[in-house]
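User: I'm preparing a small set of examples for a lab meeting where we compare how different chains pack in three dimensions. I only have the primary sequence for this one, and I'd like the structure in token form so I can line it up with the others. Please keep the answer compact; I'll paste it straight into my notes.
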Amino acid sequence: MTEEGPPADRVRMTLGDAEIAAARYADEVIEPVWWSATVWDGPAAYEASLAPFTQEQRRLWAVAWYRAEVFNGGHHQFFGNPTGIVWRDAVEGLRAIGSPRMAEVLATASRRLGGASPLQLERLEALGALDARGEGFDDLDDRMYDLADAEDLEGLMLRYAQSRPAAFHFDGYVDRPGPGSPG
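Assistant: Understood. Below is the structure token output for the 183-residue chain.
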């Protein structure tokens, strides 16, 4: 028997011009996507969960996932976790925010896997083959860290959102975890 966690709290979120202009971090602008989109349940669920959002929201969210995973455990972690499903959106997002060099780092990492699959199991198999050949992503991890600092990745993300606020407007409901739940 499994124990269910606390129910999610359905809350209304509104992001308009004022909230986007006042944001100090890009994550504030894509908060509705964080609570609504999923990387956990495969490609169909991923696409369905992102359907209510604009391409700009989707891509900026993917860049945020990419940044979080690579800064936590490198490209190996990014592709090995369910979050690797966002890689194509992250490449497009990096280009859109003005970082073609970071986009190329991610595209190169994907090519090392033979073109990263949207399916986690296939990415894990490709990572295993890469590891067996004694190859990895250390050079690309270092390049990403250097570029993120040099290009001010957080600043690029926030300026991108604030320069086109209408693309980040949101007025709707999201499910936040209930009290006492992890995350």
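A couple of notes for your slides: DSSP finds ten helices and two strands in the chain. Strands lie at 9-15, 170-176.

User: Perfect, thanks.
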